[in-house]
Amino acid sequence: MSDITVGPALDLNGLERRYGERVALSGVTIRLEPGRTLAVFGANGAGKTTLLRVLAGLLRPHAGTVRVLGCDLPGETWKVRGRIGYLGHDPLLYRELTGRENLTYQSRLYDLEPERVEEALAAVGLERRANEPVRDLSKGMVQRLAAARATLHDPALLLLDEPRANLDPAAAERLEPLIGRDSGRARVLVTHDVDGGLAEADLAVGLRGGRQAFAIAAAELDGSRARELYA
Amino acid sequence: MIRAASAILRKDLTIELRTKESVPAMTLFSVTVYVLFHFGLDRDTLDGELASGVLWVTLLLATVIGVSRLFAAEREQGGIDALLLAPVDRTALFVAKAVALFLYLVLLEVVAVPVFGLLLLGPDLFAAFPELLAILVLADIGLAAVGALVAALAVETRARELIVPLLLLPLVVPLLIGAASASEPLLREGAEPEDLGRFLVLLGGYDLVFGLIALAVFDFLLDD
């Protein structure tokens, strides 16, 4: 894994992000050690996806400090590019290209060896469908391919937004070594599955209306407190 | 940078080959406009200033279609995020998009210019070569640079169909003046290039200035 981080994988202090006048995130303070998992809970519109996009360097923070893999954002965003894997609602795959072509394209952007593409396809069990356009694949297969894309470059930090959506149990099991707890990567996991999220997290953060409702060790969090966010 | 630019370019050309969304639309538009001029002007043939103006304005309007579609795959399939996450110099993205647009324009002109010669031009089109070819190439370079810049500017906006022509067309007025003025003597009976060198320098200068401006500001356009 390409983790050369010294210190925490994430260190956020008073993060704030607005869209115009609307505050999407405010006062978010989190510290996550390398190899650990942060579960983020919150109702729709609570700011979970905004948080992931700020951590990915796709959105600028408007206040507070954001340190990802030892780099200050937004000033050192260029340093963390290539060390983050992002698996969100959008698979970030071109529908007209085949699975193999999509991964080959990504491998060229990341300057990876061509063999990585075949390894990634094998890891998600899509070798036999790799020459079909993405538009012809089922949603579950697209999600598997998206997981291969997100982990192709062996990132140190994974940003996961409902990563098991559309996956059957066998497919979810197959992706565990890539995106699961045993992947050894630091992970930020956005999920509405409170019990599942707490089971695989070390730290849990709750967001309500963009504000941090709690940030606590997952083992100490009562699931009902997280479920209150959705009430 | 070259590695990333060639990867993006190859991806764009593969998608265009499969979807056939940009070049055929640009070409069909141009041919249709030439047919409309053929009937609308109620003249059998054009030459000189009028021919040059019709040729270039039509090509510029067809360019608007190409520019509007230049980031379509990224916009519609989220590829822009994948690009921004990758350790890729954004200049590579600009170069790839500009080269793709240049190739689309060349393909457009391979069809549209002969059709223009056939439907509208009085004098022999081939008498205008190779000078017209040099004008087309220089104009295409400028259009590709400015087009890629405008396309990036519009990619995240909701009213991109309005923004692309409103930004692009004023920016290419100097290029239109240079290209039309340089072409006009070539599209007359007994074609003879007049002041061709001066206009080629103008077009080359436009390409250089706008190419450098586009390179300098492109990075900021994709910032949040």
Question: Descriptors for this entry?
Answer:
heterodimer, A: 231 residues, Rossmann fold, 2 domains, 4-stranded antiparallel sheet, 27% strand, B: 224 residues, mainly alpha, 10 helices, 0% strand
Layout of strands and helices, then pairs:
The complex is a heterodimer of chains A (231) and B (224).
Chain A: E1 10-19, E2 22-32, E3 37-41, H1 48-55, E4 63-68, E5 71-73, H2 77-80, E6 84-87, H3 99-109, H4 115-123, H5 139-151, E7 157-161, H6 169-179, E8 186-190, H7 194-200, E9 203-208, E10 211-217, H8 223-227
Parallel strand pairs in A: 3-8, 3-9, 6-7, 7-8
Antiparallel strand pairs in A: 1-2, 1-4, 4-5, 9-10
Chain B: H1 2-19, H2 23-40, H3 48-69, H4 72-77, H5 79-85, H6 90-119, H7 131-154, H8 160-171, H9 173-183, H10 196-221
Helix pairs in contact in B: 1-6, 2-3, 2-6, 3-6, 3-7, 3-8, 3-9, 6-7, 7-8, 7-9, 7-10, 9-10
The percent of residues in helical segments of chain A reads 25-40%
Reported for the largest beta sheet of chain A, the result is: 6 strands, mixed
Major sheet details of chain B:
none
Kindly state the percentage of residues in helix of chain B: over 70%
Question: How would you portray this structure in words?
Answer:
By secondary structure, chain A is an alpha/beta fold. Chain A has 2 domains: 1-83 and 157-231, P-loop containing nucleotide triphosphate hydrolases (Rossmann fold), CATH 3.40.50.300; 95-154. Chain A is built from 8 helices and 10 strands. Chain A has helices at 48-55, 77-80, 99-109, 115-123, 139-151, 169-179, 194-200, 223-227, and strands spanning 10-19, 22-32, 37-41, 63-68, 71-73, 84-87, 157-161, 186-190, 203-208, 211-217. In chain A, the strands form 2 sheets. Chain A has a 6-stranded mixed beta sheet, with helices on both faces. In chain A, strands 2-1-4-5 form a 4-stranded antiparallel beta sheet. In chain A, a hairpin with a 2-residue loop joins strand 4 (63-68) and strand 5 (71-73). The longest helix of chain A is centred in the middle third of the chain and has 13 residues, at 139-151. Chain A starts with 9 loop residues before the first strand and ends with a helix. The mean pLDDT of chain A is 89. Chain B is mainly alpha-helical and 224 residues long. In chain B, 78% of the residues lie in helices and 0% in strands. The longest helix of chain B is centred in the middle third of the chain and has 30 residues, at 90-119. The chains are: A alpha/beta (231), B mainly alpha (224).
